[in-house]
Amino acid sequence: MTGDPDEALLARVAKGDPAAVRALMARKLPRILSLAQRMLGDPAEAEDVAQETFVRIWKQAPKWKPGEAKFDTWLHRVALNLCYDRLRRRREIATDAPPEQVDEGPAPDRRLLAADTSVRVSGALQRLPERQREAVVLCHYQELGNIEAAAIMGVSVEALESLLSRARRALRGALADMVER
Amino acid sequence: MNRERFEELAQAYGGQVARWPESERDAAALLMAAEPEYARRTLAEAEQLDAFLDAWRPKPASAALMDTVLAAAPKPRREPRWRGWLMPAGLGAGLAAACAAGVLFGVQLEQRATGANSAGAAVAELDLSGLSEDV
């Protein structure tokens, strides 16, 4: 046993066990969807990425070799590659601008504050360079450890730390006016 | 750990030390114990950005997405139909072969036994004839 928490479930998925299929979807779909939404900033595109990722999971399950890699790490790599494919396509068709964000204005109603913050943060994150965004998404949102996140990104731990620092500095700058609220 | 490193870690990984690299946490805990007010201020500053980041909640998966994902999933493996009748057929063929082999073996055994008896009789006859000559 390698200690990969997904291995046993994958073996059952490979046999087409319906309960295992549902369990794996419940365990991984929200994570993949959240990763894609935060990388792409577009919920519809994120759903496409999540769907494509699962097509690859189902194909890979019977071929999965225990002990060679951690399934969650492989999964993040696949989903991120699919996100990068889409980001590349956006650049190619010269629509690199981040998705439309609601113009942030004063929000007198306190109920609007949370939604407003969400929109502001989403916009600020989308304006980060892709690698910085990826670092924040993996470490903060996906809650991966620094070693695993660096491995997924194919960089050293020091490089990851540098990307994170620059990203957070930029985010603080972009959201500075909210601190005084 | 010195203050500079503590700030670098807070700047990179945020205000929750539990999210910092495992290898740095013990040293960070020592600094927090030695300089609680400084550590609290530094972490609080980083936590503010953490809170902003957490305010962005992703949309949950739609029912349509879940259906599409499940539709593409591996299906339970079923034995092909031909296997259903091949198994008993194979078993039957095996039994028939075993019976045939048994019968063949029995016949051969009988033939050998018969041959042995006739040979024994011939030997006995020779012996007897020899004896009769000596007598």
UniProtKB/TrEMBL annotation, chain A:
Domain RNA polymerase sigma-70 region: 26-91
UniProt cross-references to SUPFAM superfamilies, sorted A to Z: Sigma2 domain of RNA polymerase sigma factors, Sigma3 and sigma4 domains of RNA polymerase sigma factors
Record keywords, A-Z: DNA-binding, Sigma factor, Transcription, Transcription regulation
Domain of life: Bacteria
GO biological process, alphabetically ordered: DNA-templated transcription initiation
Domain RNA polymerase sigma factor 70 region 4 type residues, every copy: 121-171
Keyword Nucleotide-binding: no
GO MF term (any one): DNA binding
Similarity comment: Belongs to the sigma-70 factor family. ECF subfamily.
UniProt name for this protein: RNA polymerase sigma factor
Organism listed in the record: Phenylobacterium deserti
Lineage: Bacteria, Pseudomonadati, Pseudomonadota, Alphaproteobacteria, Caulobacterales
Automatic annotation (TrEMBL), chain B:
Keywords from the named record: Membrane, Transmembrane, Transmembrane helix
Transmembrane stretches, start-end: 85-107
Keyword Transmembrane helix attributed: yes
Annotated source species: Phenylobacterium deserti
Name of the featured protein: Anti-sigma factor
